[in-house]
Amino acid sequence: ELGTSSDQLDIQVITEGSSGLFGIGRKPAIIRVRKKETVSEEKEIEELVEAVKIESIKEEKKPAEKKPIEKKPASKPVQPKETKEVKEAKEKQSKPVKEKKEKPAKEKQAPKEKQVKEKLVKVSKPIEIITDPEEIKAIEERAVAFLRDVFGSMNLGEVEITSKYNTSDGCLEVDFEGEDMGILIGKRGQTLDSLQYLTSLVVNKGRENYIRVKLDTEDYRRRRKETLENLARGIAYKVKKTRKPVVLEPMNPYERRIIHSALQGNKFVETVSEGEEP
């Protein structure tokens, strides 16, 4: 009667029924059924765009941190810097080697501000390889138009957007250039990942098959990959030398894949993720 499937319903039992004795005194169960409230894709995009805008404004207006100058009493001798560094190194070496799944820090924010969280598109549809030039052009135009609207609402000024669809792997690559692109990258690429997720929602809306979307600016993806690979090699050398495990900072699945890939051929160390394996 409600015109929907059972998984889209909220069912609440008001009174539990009773079978009675030999059918005598039987009481029917009373339940309350209503449709679940669903968040539309348009609403989700709107909320995420607002979150990206708020995060970029906070990054832009964030003042430089100033360390307070403290006067040390003359009676206490100044400890050499080397001692502190050695101590910190020893403390780090005592930690076990596991890679933790990234968890956003809990911060108190104003009610209207929504924290930008990493969102990964769950690919339940097969990846589609498009060969029709007109269809490729339409997909690129849809992605570019969406990003122009977002950048315009963020008052970023002139941003040059270029797009390219690779028929080899079915990935739409979008790159943009302009001033203050660091705002669009965000801390460890979190803002860029959020924009990539939003663009993927727009591009794949109403499609039967899935199109991968990759956003980049200022060659950030390549630079971040090189940084992580160098980190992996350095940590592997340290583990081999000290024979002690090391814990890396929390990473998203994409970055954990880079670490695993960089060390998969190293016979002296092994990598283990805490959480879902990439």
UniProtKB/TrEMBL annotation:
Record key words, sorted: Cell shape, Cell wall biogenesis/degradation, Chaperone, Cytoplasm, RNA-binding
Gene3D superfamilies: 3.30.300.20, probable RNA-binding protein from clostridium symbiosum atcc 14940, R3H-like domain
Statement: the UniProt record of this protein carries the keyword Transit peptide: no
UniProt cross-references to SUPFAM superfamilies, sorted A to Z: R3H domain
Region (Disordered): 60-117
Residues spanning the signal sequence: none
The keyword Cytoplasm is assigned to this record: yes
MF GO annotations: RNA binding
Occurrences of domain R3H (ranges): 222-278
Stored InterPro entries: Jag_KH (IPR038008), Jag_N_dom_sf (IPR038247), KH_dom-like_a/b (IPR015946), KhpB (IPR039247), KhpB_N (IPR032782), R3H_dom (IPR001374), R3H_dom_sf (IPR036867), R3H_KhpB (IPR034079)
One of the GO biological process terms: regulation of cell shape
NCBIfam families membership: Jag_EloR
Protein name: RNA-binding protein
Organism: gut metagenome
